[in-house]
Amino acid sequence: MKTLQVDVAVIGAGTAGMTAWRAAAREGARVVLIEDGPYGTTCARVGCMPSKLLIAAADAAQGARDAASFGVHVGGLRIDGREVMERVRRERDRFVGFTLRSIESMPEEDKLRGRARFVSDTVLDVGGHTRVEARAIVIATGTRPNVPAQYEPLGERAIVNDDVFEWHDLPESVLVLGAGVIGLELGQALSRLGVRTRIVQRSAHIGGLRDPLVYQSALAAFRNELDLCLDAAILGVRRVGSEAEVRYQVPGCAEVVERFEYVLLAAGRVPNLEGMGLENTSIKLDERGRPLFDPATLRIGETPIFIAGDVNGILPLLHEAADDGRIAGRNAARYPDVQAAERRAALSIVFTDPQLAAVGLRFNELPPDAAVAEVDFADQGRSRIMLKNRGKLRVYAERDSGVFIGAEMAGPAMEHIAHLLAWAVQQRLTVQQMLAMPFYHPVIEEGVRTALQRLAGEMAE
Ligand SMILES: Cc1cc2nc3c(=O)[nH]c(=O)nc-3n(C[C@H](O)[C@H](O)[C@H](O)COP(=O)(O)OP(=O)(O)OC[C@H]3O[C@@H](n4cnc5c(N)ncnc54)[C@H](O)[C@@H]3O)c2cc1C
Ligand SMILES: NC(=O)c1ccc[n+]([C@@H]2O[C@H](COP(=O)([O-])OP(=O)(O)OC[C@H]3O[C@@H](n4cnc5c(N)ncnc54)[C@H](O)[C@@H]3O)[C@@H](O)[C@H]2O)c1
Questions:
Q1: How do residues 73-130 score in pLDDT, each as one tens digit?
Q2: What tens digit of pLDDT does each residue of 42-87 get?
Q3: Which of 251, 75, 89 is CA-nearest to residue 170?
Q4: Which of 152, 166, 216, 293 lies most in the core, judged by the most C-beta atoms within 10 Å?
Q5: Contact 214/408 with Cβ under 8 angstroms?
Q6: What is the 323 CA–ligand 2 centroid distance (Å)?
Q7: In the 8-state DSSP scheme, what is residue 414?
Q8: Residues 137, 305 contacting (CB under 8 angstroms)
Q9: What Cα–Cα distance (Å) separates residue 458 from each residue in 361, 400, 410, 422?
């Protein structure tokens, strides 16, 4: 077995790991980046990018359907599944190509292929062929889809997001298990692309929404176009020929037995931690089996080990993974001189239609005396003009200081509105300072102004 001595070893060449490698190298550390699976990152290969490509095709189909409401008739709609998937894969490969080029540009001696396993706090076994001795180690191993054992009898008829982006054609039917972020994004896209789609959710939650009024308005919008079964129990699944048969029940309704070409498991993601030899380290785990760490430094307890990206379970989003990588990489290189980092305002966006988003504090995190106000997009000028007048924006402020602390929303162009509001949260602007900013006419931001005016009124009372 070969022995490699480095300052920092980074496990996982995803977004967090690559950023950690770069940050540590910038500090002058000798770093090795260890990867077991394919290079290219979850985001580019099977996550953010291919899912948004599929959604873009679905939006085009929906745009053609909606055109008639404007008096614009585009003729018979024909969706060519092979062409749709060919573009998704082609553009996906292009994005993956950029990541691969970034990996290729790293010095060969900084890259190591194989599965990393802890031998101690500072020693790793990589693929049984190399012993890596490091002053500090960054775990950036990401997550993988949760595959409940109940679905194993379905064989290749039970699929996860990774499989969707390898399709060469669209299937006839899909049951989507889970109405979280992935279930809603992919479920709505497939439905709009003409796939018979049913989304089955075991609870009443959808898309991670917390504010009850935003939730109600989003649910009404989705119910208008999607087969969405909430609080449903899956009673059994079996494989029948080339189909998956699913038996499920929604409270108050009779049991349903239906067949689908695929069951898409969108039932959350689990951290890639097992089999890593954590028991050989002094890492302490929480009740869910995740390492206990300091979110400000990403250091695990008193160990020289750091944890970055989706695997740490804070906010499993791309920009957070990149920030984590920077913090963990720098702290690992400077270890034991570890510093707390400033985090950005929380921002998350779900690319459904209507789009869902949250910034700053969530509704369930608000102080008891927070001021809350809202605007409904049903009668909002610009939203109506575009026939996108669905959803609701709720805004939150600290009552005493008037500081804007968060918002949750469902509606048109929320990806942009959410950025605007996240920047205001991070700048700790007051509602009055926000209202002093310019607002054009007629734009969706005028809806934001209405909500803020109501929030100011609510605080004045
Ligand atoms: C369908 C989908 C859509 C998404 N859409 C968005 C979006 O629109 N916007 C957004 O912000 N986020 C989105 N995300 C989330 C985003 O993709 C993740 O937050 C991000 O990719 C996480 O990066 P990471 O570096 O933590 O993990 P990864 O990129 O998964 O990297 C982890 C790496 O570690 C390797 N590894 C694991 N164990 C070991 C080991 N023992 N030894 C060696 N290597 C190991 C893995 O092979 C992998 O390459 C989406 C995710 C999915 C699944
Ligand atoms: N637009 C984006 O930024 C984007 C898009 C996709 C994914 N992501 C990231 O990926 C993360 C994971 O997404 P996700 O949709 O997998 O997780 P999620 O937590 O959003 O949703 C998982 C859903 O599966 C259900 N579920 C869990 N176990 C189940 C079981 N055994 N049977 C039936 N249902 C079950 C849960 O009730 C939940 O609704 C998100 O939290 C998000 O951070 C982000």
A1: 998 999 999 999 999 999 999 999 999 999 999 999 999 999 999 999 999 999 999 9
A2: 999 999 999 999 999 999 999 999 999 999 999 899 999 999 999 9
A3: 89
A4: 293
A5: yes
A6: 22
A7: H
A8: yes
A9: 19, 12, 22, 21
CA of 266, nearest ligand number: 2
Q: Which residues are CB-contacts of 78 (< 8 A; sequence separation ≥ 6)?
A: none
The CA 436 to ligand 2 mean position distance, Å, reads 38
272-320: pLDDT as tens digits: 999 999 999 999 999 999 999 999 999 999 999 999 999 999 999 999 9
Both structure tokens of 43: 């985001």
Structural contact between residues 193 and 58, judged by C-beta atoms closer than 8 angstroms:
yes
Distance CA(362)–CA(405), nearest Å, equals 9
60: CA distance to ligand 1 center in Å?
28
3-class DSSP assignment, residue 77: coil
Closest Cα to atom 53 of ligand 1: 47
Measuring from atom 17 of ligand 1, which residue has the nearest CA?
Answer: 43
Handedness of CA 351, 103, 128, 140 (dihedral sign): negative
d(CA 53, CA 166): 13
What tens digit of pLDDT does each residue of 153-195 get? 999 999 999 999 999 999 999 999 999 999 999 999 999 999 9
Task: With both helix axes pointing from N to C terminus, report the angle between 445-460 and 414-426 in degrees, rounded to the nearest 10.
Answer: 40
Residue of 46, 164, 181 to test ligand 2 pocket, by largest number of atoms within 8 Å of CB: 181
Q: Would the CB of 52 count as within 6 Å of ligand 2?
A: no
Residue in this structure with the two tokens 């990806």, named with its chain if needed: 415
Task: State if residue 316 touches ligand 2 by the CB under 6 angstroms criterion.
Answer: yes
Which value, in Å, is the radius of gyration of the alpha carbons in the chain? 24
Rounded to whole angstroms, the Cα distance separating 430 from 294 reads 30
Residue 303: CB within 6 Å of ligand 1? no
Ligand 1 pocket check for 41: Cβ under 6 Å: yes
